[in-house]
Amino acid sequence: MPLTLQRDDLMPGRNLIGEWREAAEGRRFDVTDPATDTVFASVPDSGAADAHAAVDAAHAAFPAWRALPAKQRAQILKRWNALMLAHQDDLGKLISREQGKPLAEGRGEVAYAASYVEWFAEEATRANGDVIPAPVAGRRMLALKEPVGVVAAITPWNFPAAMIARKIAPALAVGCTVVCKPAEDTPLTSLALVRLAEEAGVPAGVLNIVTASRERTPEVVDQWLDDARVRKITFTGSTPVGKHLARRSADTLKKLSLELGGNAPFIVFDDADLDAAVEGLMVAKFRNGGQTCVCPNRVFVQSAVHDRFVDKLAARIAALKVGPASAADSQIGPMINARAVDKILHHLRDAVERGARIVVGGERLASLGPNYVAPTLLVGADATMACSCEETFGPVVPVTRFDSEAEVIAAANATPYGLAAYFYSNDMRRAWRVTDALECGLVGVNEGALAAEAAPFGGVKESGYGREGSVHGLDDYLHLKYVCQGQLGR
Questions:
Q1: CA dihedral for 356, 360, 363, 369, sign (positive or negative)
Q2: Where do transmembrane segments lie in this chain (predicted)?
Q3: Is 361 exposed, middle or buried (0-12, 13-18, 19+ CB in 10 A)?
Q4: Most buried of 10, 24, 406, 408 (most Cβ within 10 A)?
Q5: What's 487's DSSP letter?
Q6: Around Cβ 120, how many Cβ atoms within 10 Å?
Q7: How far apart are CA 445 and CA 423, in angstroms?
């Protein structure tokens, strides 16, 4: 079906580098619908020259943008927020078409993305420094907060609106300028958002976007890594890529925010409200078809309630409706591409070969299209299986039985990753013990939906560092300047 928008100009189909333009070499690449693998749009396939031109534009725009009063920057961001909400249907259609999530989720993501723009618009006027009590008379000591400079944002495909908003809004709020490379699978939503930012009054050169295919992405990003004018990299994606960015940033000592892979545990203790735990797992696991970095990847259920929990969960998973975004009743859409499907099926085969049992699902739904996988429940999972060691990034729930609190804490922490963790228990003392013991950046206690614009989002260990959202996310785009003024005595 053709993609029909109320505003055709929300698909500009070009890079924004001070102005809308084609790639320097004139190349383009196709954007496909994951529900059908059919091409429905194309965008510039940029290279090093385009990446360099984007930094030129951002660097030139930085002095005037940082000098603009914070209140005026805030007003521009508020207009951007209003435009995003006013065009929620069009943006939701773009998200669903290029990413695959159901239309209701696409619209919901737009509201979620706009909440970050609104939050950081309000915080723009609150980037306060400190007055430090002087140790001697006649001196004033200050700690001032200043924008770091040009920021390079590299965003993922799973939340093409929310991730660009969560990175760009705080950067613009504090006076940074931005160059951005959206994921090659989902460039259209990002281009539409930047088009609306331009309409909201973001000056030319302040926000630049460069699209590139998977093959040419390293050329674009390496150009930014080598450019000393780029003072910060913010990236959401895999841990191996995050490590590459960290290594390559060392030569110019860029500031980094890295939101990387996860392997989230979801623990159900025998004193939990099982219905609430099932509901929390459904919310946390099946959002975006399981394609989120904070999805529960390993589910641990205490022996006394294991069978009852599995029965309740199996009924809920079996009732999920799988289909394209165009179907109003779809709850699970296609996976992003064939590589994602292959990984999921590999994890399922490996688990079964190692002794796990499929209770629900377990197959590719080829009758719906090339990239559909049935929501799946596995029991008898253990730490030797690929689904326990790697992010599956799909609608697969592997359940492991456990006996003691100490045993499950050790298992939950037995991973190099530390992004999110969840557990359900009605024992308040246990709640704080387990919260303290879990090695992760986010903990959901009797709650499956964690993210909010006012909360810090980020991980520990190999899940990265830096925070997005909240006042802590604002600080990641600022540096401190200490000022000491003397000779003030009479």
A1: negative
A2: none
A3: buried
A4: 408
A5: -
A6: 29
A7: 5
Looking at the DSSP bridge assignments, the partners of residue 146 are 479
pLDDT tens digits for 375-432?
999 999 999 999 999 999 999 999 999 999 999 999 999 999 999 999 999 999 999 9
Helices (H) and strands (E) in the chain, counts: 15, 22
Give the position of tokens 């614009």.
453
Angle, alpha carbons 449-452-455 (nearest 5°): 115
Return the percentage of the chain with pLDDT > 70, whole number: 100
Q: Which of 291, 292, 312 is nearest to 424 (CA)?
A: 312
DSSP assignments along 431-448, one per residue: HHHHHHH--SSEEEES-S
Identify the CA nearest to 186 among candidates 160, 209, 154: 160
First to last CA, the chain: 79
Two structure tokens written together for 337? 């591409």
Query: Catalytic residues, which ones?
Result: 259
**pLDDT tens, residue by residue, 33-65:** 999 999 999 999 999 999 999 999 999 999 999
**CA 112, CA 159: separation in Å to the nearest integer?**
10
- Model pLDDT for residues 369-391, shown as the tens digit of each residue: 999 999 999 999 999 999 999 99
Q: Choose among 422, 413, 425: nearest CA to 460.
A: 413
Q: What is the token pair recorded at 66?
A: 């940082």
DSSP 3-state of 467: coil
Contacts of 401 (CB under 8 A, 6+ apart): 300, 301, 302, 303, 306, 380
Picking from 318, 388, 380, the residue whose alpha carbon sits closest to that of residue 352 is 380
Nearest-10 crossing angle of helices 217-226, 239-249: 30
Assessment of whether the complete model's pTM goes beyond 0.90: yes
